[in-house]
Structure formats: C-alpha cells, structure tokens
Amino acid sequence: KAGVTQTPRYLIKTRGQQVTLSCSPISGHRSVSWYQQTPGQGLQFLFEYFSETQRNKGNFPGRFSGRQFSNSRSEMNVSTLELGDSALYLCASRPTSGRAGEQYFGPGTRLTVT
Amino acid sequence: TQLLEQSPQFLSIQEGENLTVYCNSSSVFSSLQWYRQEPGEGPVLLVTVVTGGEVKKLKRLTFQFGDARKDSSLHITAAQPGDTGLYLCAGADFNKFYFGSGTKLNVKP
C-alpha cells in the first residue's frame, strides 16, 4: 500500500502571499490531519478532516484553512503568509477502525516564507 | 503550554549504551503513541500503549505506560547509530492529539 504523499516537498513564498499544500492519504483512510512543526513549538495540531467535514480544529488563526475531497485527498491553505509561518507542514491519515492516535505521516512540505 | 512534557530534550550517547526517555502529563489519555522522526521526514509510528501498566517490547525498545495512564517511558538497550532521531510521544483524547516536544537522540559510533 502506498504511504501518505504530500506535494510539494519544498516551497518558498514571500510574506503576504498565499499557499496551498496537498495531501493524499493512504488508500482507504478517511481521516486526514494537518500539523505544523517548528523548532520552537514542536508539532502542533492544525485540523482534522473526516468524510469531507472538519472534525477538529487546533488553535490557529483563520488564515489557516483546509478542505477534503470525496476521494479523501486534502488541501491546506494559508493566506497572507507571515515569516512565522515558515515550518514543516505534516499531513497524517488514519483508518476509521484504528486507535485514535495511530496516525501515518507523510514526509511533509517544508515552507519557507521570506 | 505543552500538555506532554518529554525529558531529556537532547541526548548524545555512545553506541552500546542504554537510555530512557520520559513522557509526562497531568492529563489522562485514552492511548499514548511513540513516534520516531528522522530529518526531512514525517514521524513514524513505533507503538501504541493503551492499558495502565502496560509494557511493550519492540526488539531493543521497551515501552511502558504508567498505571494512571498519564506518563510513559521508552527504554533503548544497546543503542545503535540507526536509533538516532527525534522521539515523540503523543496522547490521544477522543479525536484530539497532543504531541510532546520531543527528545533528540544522537548515537555516536
């Protein structure tokens, strides 16, 4: 079974721009979560989508948004980028029948905001 | 404020040494996971512990869940350079997930 894939792997954007990141979960997984990882804050939960609906949301500003499509693929959008948004953005999927915390992560998208 | 506190934050040891990493919380979790992350990659799930007092072994790695399901430990026996990485614990509370700040392990040959 193919793992979680994320595109692009690397991205450089300018402050004020917006960006869209893509995630394809493991086949059959309907839950997709997004995380931001920085050296200072560690791994922080952004949101989770299940069957095209946002099921949970972390404490991030409204500039961070996401959506999920009928094939479970998910996109994350960040508008009006700030320097502090530079981070590794990770996507994780999990099976419906699995334990809550057992997630399978993609390799991440490294976003640099200049 | 981190819900899960990991210690130590950094650990640099020689090949063959033993080590223990701790994950502590004031909250009770329905389950707790340990992940390992290598540079430039996403975390990889190592183990899930569910029952208080549970001990699980994965080759040279031993995981323990505290009796009160608030803390956990990871013990590595005879560490090898291939064990180098960032070790993360994560707690699940219904459908919300909380990660510790991680322990960066470096095993020198």
Beta-strand content bin of chain B = over 45%
Query: What fraction, in percent, of the residue positions of chain A are helical?
Result: under 10%
Structural class of chain B: mainly beta
The overall pLDDT average of chain A reads 93
Decide which structural class fits the backbone of chain A. mainly beta
Distance between the termini of chain A: 37 Å
β content of chain A, as a range? Answer: over 45%
Largest interface, counted with CB-CB under 8 A? Answer: A-B, 23 and 29 residues
Low-pLDDT ranges of chain B? none
Element order of chain A: H for helix, E for strand: EEEEEEEEEEE
What can you tell me about this protein's structure?
The complex is a heterodimer of chains A (114) and B (109). In chain A, 0% of the residues lie in helices and 53% in strands. Chain A has strands at 5-7, 10-13, 19-24, 31-38, 42-50, 53-57, 64-68, 74-78, 87-94, 104-105, 109-113. Chain A starts with a strand and ends with a strand. In chain A, a hairpin with a 2-residue loop joins strand 5 (42-50) and strand 6. With 114 residues, chain A is mainly β. In chain A, strands 2, 4, 5, 6, 9, 10 and 11 form a seven-stranded mixed β-sheet that branches. Chain B is mostly beta strands and 109 residues long. In chain B, 0% of the residues lie in helices and 58% in strands. Chain B contains no helices and eleven strands. In chain B, the strands form two sheets. In chain B, strands 2, 4, 5, 9, 10 and 11 form a six-stranded mixed β-sheet that branches. Chain B is globular, with a radius of gyration of 13 Å. The termini of chain B are far apart. The mean pLDDT of chain B is 92. Chain A binds chain B through residues 4, 33, 35, 42-45, 48, 55-56, 90, 92, 99-108, 110, and chain B through 2, 29-33, 35, 40-45, 48, 50, 88, 90-102.
